Amino acid sequence: MLDGWVPWPESFARRYRAAGYWEGRPLDRLLRERAAADPDRIALVDAAGDRWTYAELDRHADRQAAGLRRLGIGAGDRVVVQLPNTDAFVVLFFALLRAGAVPVLTLPAHRESEIVHVAETAGATAYVIPDVLDGFDHRALARAARKAVPSIEHVLVAGEAAEFTALADVDAAPVPLAEPDPGDVALLLLSGGTTGKPKLIPRTHDDYTYNVRASAEVCGFDSDTVYLVVLPTAHNFALACPGLLGTLMVGGTVVLAPTPSPEDAFELIEREKVTATAVVPPVALLWLDAVEWEDADLSSLRLLQVGGSKLGAEPAARVRPALGCTLQQVFGMAEGLLNYTRLDDPSDLVIQTQGRPLSPDDEIRVVDEDGRDVAPGETGELLTRGPYTLRGYYRAPEHNARTFSDDGFYRTGDLVRVLPSGHLVVEGRAKDQINRGGDKISAEELENHIMAHPGVHDAAVVGMPDATMGERTCACLVPRAGRSAPAQRELAAFLTDRGVAAYKLPDRVEVMDAFPRTSVGKTDKKELGRRIAGQLRTEDGGVH
Ligand code: AMP
């Protein structure tokens, strides 16, 4: 068993097994079983049109698993994976599981600051990267990461390896490998984070397989499903809700999109006759507009899942008329709990709510600031526990003490109300995080970086309303005495230099003499947010 994670109490584990949620199957079996049942079916298609049958994918994963073992990467080893939406990701994911290693999934956008922290926390022994992606050389990042995190012994590169090992050379004749304990951690996902640095989310074979299987059922996935991966494969939504794993589990076909742009995605939808996909609200908005001028044939599309941040009721209502498919709202978290509107829900629930819990055993509490349950229908913070919701972040005991109740409920930091039908409406957020169109930014993490700037005395990062992204990021700065605070461009360059991912860079900088304070003397972020929003309205008013 991996150490440093918090398993479910045995009484709960027994219950989840008895209810049939946890089936005692390693996660990689979903591929093995489909490959045995339907070897010649197409499992995977990449953007270039290269096709993999289930048998080919399965065989390749076996060979790479043997190659990993030969390198000395095996049971319980944590491997940081940072690959774009390519077949290399899919093969590697299964190969790592088969070798008994634990993939730690990071986004292609992450940079030194995030990668070093994640590799350090995970105690990673290997790091897998593309060579160059969008003009950024990941091998340079790997050099820096290796220097900072000596536990990284291997760097594997999809592409030109330079001094590292080419992923293509990680290949050997398949060897029999012991199957992992299904109750053990299968992979580590990244949380958006509200404090300091991103946290690692342990997901077990049992819980993640259930997450995938139950999601595939609710979403009506079957062997005719052709699922387009638009979001990064490392994101829980695209990976497992039901995502690429859910599609493979039922024998469907996964198509990989290089970007979510309407040009790329629409072309693939037409070419591969895609039936289902998942996007964040800004991408949905883009697509809703693009159908007016793109003439691609989208008639195969039956299901558009939208989640990651809140989709407004107005764009939600436009999905069926514009795209001709069913909308499904998804309010989920890599920590576990998933809420889906159901395919046969009446349209007002689909348009107005963010869905209801996936599992009959998802327990939901909605509490006030003192932790007391609010009256039914009132808004409060959502707490949850269940058969696929974590009981603690990986190696984060102090954070866990704050984030989980004594009886194991996860405090989501989301403000919701529950309708009599059981559907949830997301009303806002209690956590100090900006949700920039689905990308999560921890205010505290960014403030810590900004405060390292010599011109900054104090920093407060708040969200500002934005029609497309839902929110964008505003950094409020108090300059250091006798110095001037950096302008937006300078601050962005400074943060980039510190290895901060581009999506975290502030969209706006506001310099002020002092911050408003709460009655106990803390920075009043609510007031700051109101001021910025007011200012934006004035500026808008000035334009029109
Ligand atoms: P992640 O771990 O990136 O999946 O982020 C999970 C968080 O994203 C949730 O706790 C919410 O704050 C937010 N979120 C996800 N889906 C939705 C949605 N449909 N509506 C509003 N917020 C959402």
Automatic annotation (TrEMBL):
Q: Where does AMP bind?
A: 308, 330, 332, 334, 414, 431, 440
Q: Which InterPro entries does the UniProt entry name for this protein?
A: AMP-bd_C (IPR025110), AMP-bd_C_sf (IPR045851), AMP-binding_CS (IPR020845), AMP-dep_synth/lig_dom (IPR000873), ATP-dep_AMP-bd_enzyme (IPR050237)
Return the CDD domains for the record: 23DHB-AMP_lg
> Residues that bind Mg(2+) 1, according to the entry?
299, 301, 324
The AMP-dependent synthetase/ligase domain is annotated at 31-394
Q: What's one GO MF term for it?
A: metal ion binding
Gene3D superfamilies found in the cross-reference section: 3.30.300.30, 3.40.50.980, Luciferase, Domain 3 (2.30.38.10)
Note the superkingdom of the native organism.
Bacteria
Domain AMP-binding enzyme C-terminal span(s) in chain numbering:
445-522
Instruction: Quote the record's binding site residues for Mg(2+) 2.
Output: 451, 453, 456
Which parts form a coiled-coil structure per UniProt? none
Keywords attached to this entry: ATP-binding, Ligase, Metal-binding, Nucleotide-binding
Q: What's this protein's family per the entry?
A: Belongs to the ATP-dependent AMP-binding enzyme family.
Name of the featured protein: Salicylate-AMP ligase
Native species of this protein? Streptomyces gandocaensis
